[in-house]
Amino acid sequence: MRRILAIDAGGTSSRAVLFDVNGECRGFGRAGGGNPTAVGIAAAVDALGLAVERALGGTASGSAADSFVVVALAGTATAPFLALLDARLAHLGLHGRSVIEPDLLGTFCSGTSDHHGYAVIAGTGAIAARVVGGHIHTVKGGSGWLLGDTGSGFWIGQQIARAVVASLDGLGPSTALTPLLLTATGIERTGVRSRGRSEELSQLMRELYALRPVELARFAPLAFEAVEHGDIESETTPDVVARDILEVAASAIARVLAAAVESDVKPEVDGCVVLGGSVLAAGLARAPDIFTHRLRAAAGGFELVTVEDGVVGAAVLALRHLGREVDVEFHRRLVREVDRVRTPATQV
Amino acid sequence: MRRILAIDAGGTSSRAVLFDVNGECRGFGRAGGGNPTAVGIAAAVDALGLAVERALGGTASGSAADSFVVVALAGTATAPFLALLDARLAHLGLHGRSVIEPDLLGTFCSGTSDHHGYAVIAGTGAIAARVVGGHIHTVKGGSGWLLGDTGSGFWIGQQIARAVVASLDGLGPSTALTPLLLTATGIERTGVRSRGRSEELSQLMRELYALRPVELARFAPLAFEAVEHGDIESETTPDVVARDILEVAASAIARVLAAAVESDVKPEVDGCVVLGGSVLAAGLARAPDIFTHRLRAAAGGFELVTVEDGVVGAAVLALRHLGREVDVEFHRRLVREVDRVRTPATQV
């Protein structure tokens, strides 16, 4: 029997689901970052192979099978990456075609069975697209950590790091982010000074410059923690520095969405706006007063749908490649099925 | 006879001067970036060796001599760098002691014979120091391109690149920086679109991501060009986007200086503020309405002195190491002497 697999290859984590043409799910697997641009080709293929192996469960070993695999992926898939991925899939007994689809389309199809609408992803990066006839028509944002992606996980993490460094250096206001970041990096405040600087500042700079720049994204959750700390009973107020960072982030993400919506010359598109990525998930759940109204305004009346990831959408795209129509009913069943087999994120 | 050399090892260019204990200069040499953190150990030693060779002129070959060399350098000099530098100097016939001094002290001593005061450098990075008793007492800023250095050449270059990318993507206002940056990177505007994006945007992103991040500093001069374009006769106004970037830069540099001045618990320091680095040189000469009043306010009454680089200061530090007192008169003579032998920057 033909094995159909849908993979959502993210910058920090990946998901794979094994299913049949009727949408019945047989297995689910998670692993680390599977985007070759973010983690390198070898590490990406290792992660995707592991996620697939876990989705296959006991059925992997020995038996060769015809397969069809769709991978939802940000950016461009290079020939060396595709060759290594196909070799790894063959090693897992999967002999067949694999197709790369844009992660924006995976996210979009996770949220709707429509062929028209918008998708916004704010995770490690920040990007939006207009979808027309089931294809990406226009892309806005997604210019990467150095040249754009304002509001992304990297950007929030970098703003946190810059704010804490400035505060420790006496160049910026004190902020609740400082103890949070020092704890996250395992640095103790000593008050010792050397070479004209405080020792914890020198130590923090060493720790952070030892990371690859994009890894600053791992500190983004601290901003949400700092704004949640505000509490009327204990008379503490949410951290102003963290709130400023999240307000600029939410505005920038909304601007990218608004640009995609405005690119719609004839406003015939009447689908929804699908929101994906860790920053949007955290923003809508943990700082709704900062994120929700900005996104609503940018969406200009279109319904907002939040998705956990792009794996359902990758499955939808696979089924369409195989000639199956995925209507509202089928889409709903697929979402339920993936939820049934989905393992908790903490199991990675 | 003992050969005394002073070297100013910058991130993008280096200078060396050969002189005697009376301050008489015998030769001057320039070469590329000599900071091992910025360009790598091998390239830095190559550049410093070349600058020294040029300063020595014909006197280099064959003859071994006792020497004393002072190198003014940002950041920490590692043991491998020092070993390679000493080997290169020995190869040039210089057998003797070499001493590393902070670039902030080189800049400070280029501007004054005082032992107390302040120095600010805004070049590739942005940093300020309080000098007490001829030594660096407090350092502010200089946290590097990822975590700080707001207002530095890198920061200005990156803001230019981000503004142009946003403008081409429809996410930011149009700006005179766009044609300037496209010309600087050799990209023609075609109007062609592919993969949901304009072709010149994709091409610009490829060009800029191919650089090392700090190399974005090379585009900083475009901001000064864009604000100078304003002209009453031709009814053009200075570019608002470029002006915003330079205003934030000037404010950030002024804040770093102000923090160094404020760190002075007992305001007994009555020296001057020495300003160095390419951004401050360009700012004070080409955008004085943006830079001058901010720096004056931050300096809190101390006199501002602008220097071309730190090579005179490195010579002052060398003379002091050799037990020579450098008073106001001697300092003035040294400045004149270095100016006499100095070759134009364009000869590099």
Task: Give a brief description.
2 copies of one chain form a homodimer. Chain A is an alpha/beta fold and 348 residues long. Chain A contains 14 helices and 12 strands.
What's the structural blueprint in terms of helices and strands?
Two copies of one chain form a homodimer.
Chain A: E1 3-9, E2 13-19, E3 25-32, H1 36-39, H2 41-56, E4 65-73, H3 79-91, E5 94-102, H4 103-111, E6 117-122, E7 126-132, E8 135-141, H5 144-147, H6 153-168, H7 177-184, E9 193-194, E10 197-198, H8 199-209, H9 221-228, H10 240-262, E11 273-276, H11 278-286, H12 288-299, E12 304-306, H13 311-321, H14 328-341
Parallel strand pairs in A: 1-4, 4-5, 6-11, 11-12
Antiparallel strand pairs in A: 1-2, 2-3, 6-7, 7-8, 9-10
Please tell me about this protein's structure.
The structure is a homodimer of 348-residue chains. Chain A has 348 residues and is an alpha/beta fold. Chain A has a 5-stranded mixed sheet. In chain A, strands 8-7-6-11-12 form a 5-stranded mixed sheet, with helices on both faces. In chain A, strands 9-10 form a two-stranded antiparallel sheet. Chain A starts with a strand and ends in a 7-residue tail after the last helix. Chain A has 3 domains: 148 residues, ATPase, nucleotide binding domain (Nucleotidyltransferase, domain 5, 2-Layer Sandwich); 92 residues, 2-Layer Sandwich (Nucleotidyltransferase, domain 5), CATH 3.30.420; 81 residues, no CATH class. Chain A is globular. The first copy, chain A, contains 14 helices and 12 strands. In chain A, strand 7 and strand 8 form a beta hairpin. In chain A, helix 6 packs antiparallel against helix 10, helix 9 packs across helix 10 and helix 10 packs parallel to helix 12. The mean pLDDT of chain A is 90. Chain A is 45% helix and 20% strand. The interface between A and B is medium-sized, with 33 and 33 residues.
